[in-house]
Amino acid sequence: MPSCSPSRSPWRRPLLAAGLLLALIGTASAQDSTRSDWLRNPAMGNYKAYAEFKMGHYTEARHVWETLTEVGNGDALFNLGVLAEDGLGEPRDLRKAETLYTAAARAGNFKAQYRLGLLYSTGETLSRDSARARLYLGMAAQAGDTDARARLAALDQPDLALSPYQQAESLSAAGRHTEAAALYARLADQGDRSAQTRLAWMHEAGRGVPRDLAEAARRFRLAADAGEAEAQYALAVMHRTGVGQDKDLPASLHWLKKAAAQGYPAALAALQSGSAAGLY
């Protein structure tokens, strides 16, 4: 770890950053840009960090995101929260994650807004706080997040049973990742493209399942073929970087345009950056 028309929440989406500009000009190495480059163009910095995350280089990714917090970048704050919550490259620290998610939410990041709403509503890893849950879920819902709307409805109607997908989200929020992955897998096998995408991210991060970029790519492709914009964007990044997929610039652009056509924010930003740079 998007407000155009987000459908299901981005889970923790490590690293759907604002654009692919760096890859478009030919490199994903964190050593090829300077700190001033990242601050001048956060989209570039976020992409670099995302590429490092995909390769399991969490320290390098953190360095870029920490730099971008100097300009209050919401994506960077959210992704630092992901690293802290999951203990990726650092000790797991839920209070640190809460602080980072809160800062990202206040910066307008709807991924963080949904994440906080989910954590406060389930009360598993953070203390249950219905008022805060409503606040943050309401912010995400206003940005167009349908999962946030569903969670708000569940808060208003406590007798309303959660859907299997919502149950999987709750398991993930409680840190029960193996159980969440199993439920996502069952839903994916039934054709739920959002669950397929969630499971792909879990394979990419090694959360509840073995870290397996090939399996992540396979599942992203299934979800992308089914029309899931988030998966289409993730597949575009993989084809740009050659991480998990063969490097294939035409294929990357194909999936990027597919995601942008659905109004996916990161894909739109990538296309706009590429166009401004004369790359498209």
From TrEMBL:
Top-level taxon in the UniProt lineage: Bacteria
Name assigned to this protein: Sel1 repeat family protein
Alphabetical UniProt keywords: Signal
InterPro entries, sorted: ISR_Activator (IPR052748), Sel1-like (IPR006597), TPR-like_helical_dom_sf (IPR011990)
Organism (species): Aquabacterium olei
Signal peptide stretch: 1-30
A Pfam short name: Sel1
